[in-house]
Design a protein that fits this description.
42% helix, alpha+beta, 135 residues, single chain, Yope Regulator, Chain: A
């Protein structure tokens, strides 16, 4: 069993009572899902959790760093995923709290991406208000 597999088991154990945790191999890393929501990356023996503007401060306070990987043009940082502080691997309750915050951040980000950006044109609004006033 690899270090990544061991970390996946730790995440599964911390969340198993509240939902289904699954994983998919991706580009040499492991993508982790909670009830279908992608919320974590496991790579090189480290867990990286999805963050939001609010939760990122906790990662920064712990001295954590964002997920990074090498490309042909150099190192790239994925600043929406930050390394889980290692101390949390022994703190199941706190790990669960951080994981839940990460899941919430992932769901919020997904909801923002799905919001329609279509607005009614001025002529459509005028036509609708003209119909109302003629009633």
């Amino acid at each position: 069993m690899s270090a990544n597999d061991d970390l996946l088991e730790i995440l599964k154990e911390s969340l198993d009572r509240v939902g289904a945790v699954s994983a998919r191999r991706m580009f040499g890393a492991v993508g982790v899902y909670f009830d279908g929501t992608f919320f974590a990356i496991i790579d090189d023996g480290a867990i990286f959790l999805k963050t939001s503007d609010e939760t990122r401060m906790a990662f920064e306070a712990e001295g954590s760093q964002p997920f990074s990987y090498q490309t042909k043009s150099g190192e790239t940082h994925l600043t929406s995923y930050w390394r889980l502080p290692e101390r949390l691997l022994d703190e199941v309750d706190e790990l669960r709290e951080w994981s839940h915050a990460s899941i919430a951040a992932a769901r919020d980000a997904a909801a923002k991406r799905r919001k329609p950006l279509i607005t009614k044109s001025k002529s459509a609004r005028k036509t609708k208000s003209a119909r109302r006033s003629s009633r």
